[in-house]
């Protein structure tokens, strides 16, 4: 299309940087790693937020808001918790021309902001469970190459922080939230994900275990962590002395979870579904699902043109009434061709073309953005057809992405072919002994034997293929205890 000068399969990174601007999602900003989320992107974030917020409220989570500033003393409450994160903490050191006595950190995540107050608020078992969530921004001064939505120095997210009196309750909630993240990806973004458990090396070190939903980006062949739901165990309860008087009058530490998803979700969707003509939005998150474009021609009389406009306006009205988000583009300063290209770049799922001939035949044409298929329908059937197509397109986009994802996962039982598979943009399932050393070894070997970047474990899928007795780990030859998914990742 007019907007993109790089083809997706030519240079995926360059294509992506262009498509997020041509699709009117972001504008670049004069501070590296920071981006402006324009309304077309923000509306999509709101659809995800609306779904997730409604669902967590069903789970009796309450929203709140904590300050974005963290004192150094609190942030450094647990040295080893933050030592490897320290380089990415942003600090406020002065106001105006006056240095602050003590620098203040900008929240990179809110455990150290919230948990001193959890310790104050939770005194008795009657104060449990405590289930709080906040929708906010966080700042992490990343040094890896920034990528819009995928890796930025400030991003929007939700962070849930819950406290229970038993590990069993935590284990249940961790998976309830992870299922909501799976639905965000598979039901809203039409992106297939692999739910699983992070390895000891890849998990959140401050927690007990981390669960994740892992997506696959065909254009780069990389895996990408989609969202995380951690069981923190009692680690933070010990760190922040969050203890309570239990029903038997004894003292107990709480058990905690924390979970989050971010605006990265949108970037993953753009990468998975976009094409050489721009974004391709799943209807569930498309701010406009059907764009109506009347195509008057010069031979038409004024009253005929007027008639066309009235009918097109009527189409939008009845589409909206049927719950299809529609918009009329009857601007007279752009040609139909320009408009087709414009709305294709933005990824609008359906275009309704209404031309002079259609005026006589009482028809219009629906053009699908995902498959480019066109069909002519009677105007009185338009609304019903567009509603059906919203569901059909959503389903077809998901199925197509899942087929491509499944075709790009290979199984290997030895190191042979591992590098070739990575270089062929595949993810790799292998039998594994599940040790930190073996994961270090794969990282080292994949760095040494290829230039495309190291491989890491993405997750130990909850859906485990059969593991025959005596199966060996693909890298150490030790007895394998599970199947694990490897890949290069963002
Ligand atoms: O992933 C989530 C879901 C939502 C709530 N938080 C957890 C853990 C966050 C890990 N993490 C992630 N990044 C961090 C960056 C930092 F600079 C510091 Cl000081 C700490 C961290 C850090 O703890
Ligand atoms: Mg990080």
Number of extended strands: 23
Strand order of the largest sheet: 3-7-8-14-11-10-9-22-23-21-20
Low-confidence stretches: none
Task: Indicate the proportion of strand residues.
Answer: 25-35%
Count of helical stretches = 14
How far apart are the first and last residues' alpha carbons, in Å? 28 Å
Percent range of helical residues: 25-40%
CA radius of gyration is 26 Å
Give the overall shape, derived from the CA principal axes: globular
Q: What profile does the largest beta sheet have?
A: 11 strands, mixed
Structural class: alpha+beta
Heterogens: the ligand O=C1CCCN[C@@H]1CCCn1cnc2cc(F)c(Cl)cc2c1=O, magnesium ion
- Compute the average pLDDT: 97
Description:
There is one protein chain. The protein is of the alpha+beta class and 490 residues long. The chain has 14 helices and 23 strands. It has helices at 12-22, 39-58, 72-75, 79-82, 111-121, 167-188, 235-240, 264-273, 302-321, 336-345, 356-361, 382-407, 418-423, 436-448; strands spanning 26-28, 35-37, 62-63, 69-71, 91-95, 98-106, 130-139, 154-164, 194-197, 209-217, 222-233, 243-245, 251-253, 255-262, 290-295, 326-328, 350-355, 363-368, 374-378, 409-411, 427-432, 456-461, 482-487. Helix 2 (39-58) packs antiparallel against helix 6. The site of the ligand O=C1CCCN[C@@H]1CCCn1cnc2cc(F)c(Cl)cc2c1=O has 16 residues, from strand 11 and strand 14. The ligand O=C1CCCN[C@@H]1CCCn1cnc2cc(F)c(Cl)cc2c1=O is lined by residues 75, 82, 85, 88-89, 108-109, 140, 159, 204, 206, 228, 230, 258-260.
């Amino acid at each position: 299309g007019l907007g993109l000068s790089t083809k997706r399969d030519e240079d995926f990174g360059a294509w992506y940087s262009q498509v997020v601007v041509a699709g009117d999602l972001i504008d670049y900003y004069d501070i590296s790693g920071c981006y402006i989320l324009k309304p077309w992107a923000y509306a999509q974030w709101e659809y995800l937020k609306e779904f997730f917020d409604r669902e967590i409220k069903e789970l009796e989570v309450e929203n709140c808001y904590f300050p974005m500033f963290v004192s150094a003393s609190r942030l450094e409450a647990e040295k080893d918790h933050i030592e490897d994160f320290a380089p990415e903490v942003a600090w406020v050191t002065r106001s105006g021309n006056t240095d602050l006595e003590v620098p203040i950190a900008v929240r990179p995540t809110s455990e150290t902001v919230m948990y001193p107050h959890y310790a104050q608020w939770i005194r008795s078992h009657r104060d449990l469970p405590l289930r709080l969530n906040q929708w906010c921004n966080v700042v992490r001064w990343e040094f890896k190459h920034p990528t819009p939505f995928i890796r930025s120095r400030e991003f929007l997210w939700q962070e849930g922080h819950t406290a229970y009196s038993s590990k069993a309750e935590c284990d249940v909630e961790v998976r309830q939230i992870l299922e909501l993240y799976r639905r965000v990806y598979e039901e809203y973004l039409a992106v297939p994900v692999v739910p699983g458990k992070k390895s000891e090396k890849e998990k959140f070190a401050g927690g007990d275990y981390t669960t994740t939903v892992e997506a696959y980006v065909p254009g780069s062949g990389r895996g990408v962590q989609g969202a995380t739901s951690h069981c923190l165990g009692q680690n933070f309860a010990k760190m922040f002395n969050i203890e309570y008087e239990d029903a038997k009058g004894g003292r107990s530490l709480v058990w905690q979870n924390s979970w989050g998803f971010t605006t990265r979700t949108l970037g993953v969707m753009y990468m998975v579904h976009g094409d050489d003509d721009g974004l391709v939005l799943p209807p569930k998150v498309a701010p406009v699902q059907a764009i109506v474009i009347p195509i008057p021609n010069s031979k038409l009389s004024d009253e005929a043109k007027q008639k066309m406009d009235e009918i097109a306006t009527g189409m939008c009205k009845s589409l909206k009434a049927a719950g299809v988000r529609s918009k009329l583009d009857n601007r007279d300063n752009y040609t139909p061709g320009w408009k087709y290209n414009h709305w294709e770049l933005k990824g609008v799922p359906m275009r309704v073309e209404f031309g002079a001939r259609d005026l006589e035949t009482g028809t219009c044409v629906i053009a699908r953005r995902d498959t480019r298929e066109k069909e002519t329908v009677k105007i009185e059937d338009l609304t019903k057809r567009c509603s059906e197509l919203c569901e059909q397109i959503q389903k077809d986009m998901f199925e197509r992405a899942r087929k491509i994802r499944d075709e790009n996962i290979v199984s290997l039982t030895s190191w042979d072919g591992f590098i070739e598979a990575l270089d062929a943009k595949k993810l790799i399932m292998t039998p594994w002994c599940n040790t930190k050393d073996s994961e270090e070894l794969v990282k080292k070997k994949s760095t040494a034997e290829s230039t495309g970047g190291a491989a890491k474990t993405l997750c130990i899928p909850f859906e485990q293929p059969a593991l025959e007795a005596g199966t060996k780990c693909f890298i150490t030859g030790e007895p394998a205890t599970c199947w694990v998914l490897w890949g290069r990742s963002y």
